[in-house]
Amino acid sequence: MRLTLTAGQRGDITEAHALIEGLAARYVLADTAYDGDNFRNEVNTKNAQAVIPSNPSRAKKLPLDKDIYKERHLVECAINKLKQFRRVATRYEKTAASFLGMITIAAIALWLR
Question: What is the per-residue pLDDT across 50-86, written as a single tens digit (0 to 9) for each?
Fold first, then answer.
């Protein structure tokens, strides 16, 4: 698992390249926010298949393997479990470094269960 922290107003796609750097995977599952040609091309260069729904503004819709995409709910469930930790949900920590540390501790606690 890799975690990165960005500003709330910053798009998620800005960190996508760093998150898949050095990973070996058959599939990369993401939501429509990651539907960019640059990101899809990078996934393809890693010999993986991008399983990303086409953005509604895309002129030509790209194929989507819906059976594989259903597995993305595991990510959503993990985020929901992280938010069950009060300190994560309410962001008590004042600095980004300490907030990322708290998310890491919560993720470790979930992993150890």
Answer: 999 998 988 999 999 999 999 999 988 988 999 999 9
Domain extents in the chain: 1-66
Helix (H) or strand (E) holding 43: helix 37-45
Q: How sure is the predictor about 15, in pLDDT bands with cuts at 50, 70 and 90?
A: confident
Cβ neighbors of 101 (< 8 A, separation 6 or more) are: 93
Q: Are strands 27-29 and 49-51 parallel, antiparallel or unpaired?
A: parallel
Tokens representing 78 are 């993990």
Closest to 92 measured CA to CA, from 108, 106, 79: 106
